[in-house]
Known about the structure:
single chain, 21 helices
Amino acid sequence: MGTMHEEDRPRQPLLDRPLGRGQAVLWWTLASALFILVVVGQFGPTNHDAIEWDTPAWTLAHGQPSCSYRFGFQTEPPPLFPELVGGVEVTVHSLDRRLFAARPYPTVDCRQDEADLSTAASLHDAALIGFLAWFVLLCGVVLVFRSDRRPPTIREAAGVLGLAVLPPVSAALTTSIHPEDLVAVGLCLAAVARSTRRRDVLVGVLFGLAACSQQFALLAVVPIVVLAGWGERARVLAGAGAAASAVCLPFLITDPGGLLHAFSGSSATQAGGATPTFVLEIHLHGVLLVVVSRGLPLLAAAIFTWGAGRRLGDRRWAVVPLLSVLAVCMTFRLLFEVELFLWYFAAVAVLLLLVAAMDRSATPLWLVSWAAWNAVVVICYSERSWDSFLQMSLVGLVSQAIVVGWAFGLGVTVLWRTSNGRVGQTDEGKMAGVLLGLG
């Protein structure tokens, strides 16, 4: 039997060619540099809204957690990111006093010293700390790429470069600075990467930390809990509860009401936002508005995941369908959200980016549709659109329906192909899926 000549061997697809560890690190570094350039090129990071998470960080750094949620900001982030920033501010106190006021925080009525905290220089320096969120997100993305235990490939390099230029991701630092959103997405992705192999306490810990960074992370927790068995479910919930309790302990002791307000998301459900949405158009208020905008997405995610899990069977823990399920569940937030900004699309955009990069059987039509969705989101929800056509109610609602329905369709299409055994498989795997389907 003759040996196969080198030219007769099937060529490995370009995207699946392996990278060495040093090459992978180089691509991560290039992606980080590119992201920084994208943010700086848009005159960021902005300090707009930085005070909303820097104030609790500043109070924590002074040992005053009872003051952290006493200022009535329009949005109040859960405590994880303020705790991270507070730790950074304590660390650099000796290097830059603008990040850490010289005298202790007053304890009488928790009124801030504007000269110490609200100066442009202080907030600008605090905003620079927002770049930490990029590295959390990058780690989560890389862990997802490695979840199938394969060595790094060009797919990973392309994925991290795409992440660096993804408009909703940079918008979290350039439009109004909300790095806690990127931290939540990164931690959710790390949990998903672990979930594809094991549903254990560590998965719960990562999800618990993600929920303590931004409340929408619960939309990623729900699918894992629904898809898991009873024993796995208990371990995940135990880990999440332990992590959340540890993060929230200072506030549970000193200001449980403020903590509940931040976690409920009620501070971000005020009417009169920049963009018309379906929820605003039905004119709900108070508790009912919070229940509809925050509770219904969780219920919809649970119902959808239950149906998808039954359809997928054993394939539900494969990384591509699992990412697709999470992408669809995240669209429910966009459907029921009170107002929409470009960075609100970051979770869906990152999840679909990973699906596009990792699905080896993605059709050209799906990839073109995915790229077009990203373009439409930028056109409709960039900051320049707020004061133009989106202020017209009908146009704003049509835009919301298009981008949400489009993202939903992209995720469901992948799940449909997965349930028929045609996603992310080798030729032999595809043939097996066809035979199983015929059987």
